[in-house]
Amino acid sequence: MDVLKAEYRDTKVKAKKLRKMGFVPCTIYGGDLKESVHIQIPFPDINRFVSRKLKGSTLTIDLGDKKYNVLFKNISRSAPNLEIEHLEFQHLIADEPVNSVMQVVLLNKDKNPNLIQLHIEEIPYNALPSHLMESVTIDLDRMGPGTVVKVEDLDIVNNPNIKLLIPADTVILSVSEPNKASGDEQTAEAAAAE
Fold it and tell me: What are the strands, taking DSSP E only, across 6-158?
C-alpha cells in the first residue's frame, strides 16, 4: 500500500496561502473519526501520487504519531490551469463496507482503428476495504464496429464481494466505424496544404 507523509494543518492559515507555501490542503473523514482531520502534504508528493494513482485507490497517510488507512475519494482542481487545490480521503475500517469507484481503463486503443466512444469513466460500487478495486480493464483489440460493452459483460458482476451501485445494463462503451467524412476532409486538407 502506498504511503503519503503528511503534517497536521493549521486551519487558521487560508488554503490559498498554504498552496503558495508549497502544500496541498487535504482532509481525512469518515470511519470512526469523530471529526475530520485537516492535513497538508507537499505539492511534489501529491503530484507524484496523483500521476500514479486513480480515485478509488487505497493508501496510508503517515502523520508521524498516527497512521490512517484511507481511500482516495476526491480531488479538486482550479480552472483554467487545473492545479490541484484539495484532496479528500475517507478513513477505512476493516469490517465496514464503503462506497467507491473503479476507473475504466482501455487497453490496446491504439490497435483499434474504429471510433471508440466511452460512455462512463468510472463504475460506482460498495465493498469492504479488503475487496476495493482501483480499476477494471477492457481490451479493445479486435473489437469491431457495432460492439457494445455493458457493465453486465464484465467479470466484476459475478464477484460476490462487490455490490455494484449502477444498473447492470449500463453501457460502458460502444464501437463504431471511423467517420469517413472526417477522413476525406483530412485528406483534402492535407492536399490543400501541399
Answer: 7-8, 23-29, 37-42, 58-62, 67-77, 84-91, 98-107, 115-118, 122-127, 135-139, 148-150
Amino acid letter for position 5: K
Q: What is the pTM of this model?
A: 0.82
- The model's pLDDT over 25-65, given as tens digits with 9 standing for 90+, comes to 999 999 889 999 999 999 999 999 999 988 999 999 999 99
Long-range CB pairs of 59-67, under 8 A, 24+ apart, other chains included: 59/1, 59/2, 59/3, 59/4, 59/89, 60/1, 60/2, 60/3, 60/4, 61/3, 61/4, 61/6, 61/28, 61/89, 62/3, 62/4, 62/5, 62/6, 63/6, 63/7, 63/8, 63/37, 63/39, 64/7
